[in-house]
Amino acid sequence: MAVGFNGNLQNQTHIQEFILLGFSNHPELQTFFFLVFSIIYMLTLIGNLVILLLIMADSHLHTPMYFLLGNLSFIDLCYMTSTVPQMLANFLRDRKAISYAGCMVQIFSLISCVGSECFLLAAMAYDRFVAICHPLLYMVIMNRKVCLQMVAGSWLGGLLNSLVHTLLTSTLSFCGPKEIRHFMCDVPPLLELSCTDPALNNIVLHAASVFIGISPCVFIIVSYVFIALAILRIRSAEGRHRAFSTCTSHLTVVITFFGTALFNYNRPNAGYSLDVDTLVSTLYCIVTPMLNPIIYSLRNQDVKAALQKLASRKQDVF
Questions:
Q1: Nearest in space to 1 (alpha carbons), one of 202, 182, 241, 259
Q2: pLDDT per position as a tens digit, 305-317
Q3: Could you tell me the maximum CA-CA distance found in the chain, to the nearest angstrom?
Q4: Which domain holds residue 125?
Q5: What 3-state class would DSSP assign to 234?
Q6: What percentage of the chain exceeds 90 in pLDDT?
Q7: What is the DSSP string of 59-90?
Q8: Cα 166 to Cα 184: distance, rounded to the nearest angstrom
């Protein structure tokens, strides 16, 4: 069934802006929300920039694994910047609006980052599979050209998917309520507001969720099945622990990202309050990018060592 379809288009008007309802149920807490999400945004920027700095500065991190991690940090920076500044600005406004053009730009940037991250996490799983299952061929298989192709393919897949969704969404007409039950623009909430039939949009959305969301997730699961079997064949407990420890950070990020994404996009549209919708979307869009550098900093010995080395350099300077 088409979402938000109204067969009578005689009263159709072009909407110049949308009203974002996310967090609007608590007007007395707007300043508090602004401070909290400003801190989260700054922590995310600092955390991901530190990861990028460490990877560029420390020669021990000039490996395929950390090349992919650096690109993940860059995607998370773009991911947060596509939504949070607009949200912070709206906390300081009585009228929490976003222009139609701004909404389309936000959809394009958001979906690009989400799709690219799905593909990149799958590429990182393949990197761990090669490192553990074919360690002697690791540098041959995961050469510079292959790494560049993986990153370029991840961005290209995300950008093409986003372009299709943005173009299809821009063809919709909105003649009724212009209030979005979200703190940002996204495709599903806009389909609910459309007064033209979004059947094609829904088909493409479901197809993309399979190709962009479920397929990388299945690939990652299969990769880790082979990784687990390879680790179990290692005779020493220390060897098994060392091999598994190289995967824990990536596995934690995968569970966090795909878990919140699947819950966000596959739960029923009805039956949840605006507060619950906002909380779930916040976990998916804001908290997850903040956690990624923390996870890699706490659970990765190479990153810890690079941080300690960087800190000791600063102490020597002063």
A1: 202
A2: 776 776 666 555 4
A3: 74
A4: 17-317
A5: coil
A6: 31
A7: GGG-SHHHHHHHHHHHHHHHHHHTTHHHHHHH
A8: 14
**Which tens digit of pLDDT belongs to each residue from 94-114?**
888 888 889 999 999 999 999
Q: Is residue 7 part of a domain?
A: no
The share of the chain scoring above pLDDT 70, in percent, equals 85
Pairing status of strand 17-20 against strand 179-180: parallel
Residue 8 resides in a domain: no
| Residue 42, in any domain of the structure | yes
- Tally of CB atoms within 10 A around 108: 20
Number of domains in the chain: 1
Residue indicated by tokens 């997850």: 288
Distance CA 139, CA 208 (A): 33
What the block records as the tokens of 84 is 């949070």
pLDDT of 38 higher than 60: yes
Copy the structure tokens of residue 232.
């179990």
- CATH label of the domain that carries residue 101: 1.20.1070.10
Query: Does some domain include residue 11?
Result: no
Quote the DSSP letter at residue 28: G
Strand partners, 180: 20
Q: Name the most confidently modeled range: 24-38, 158-172, 188-202, 230-244.
A: 158-172
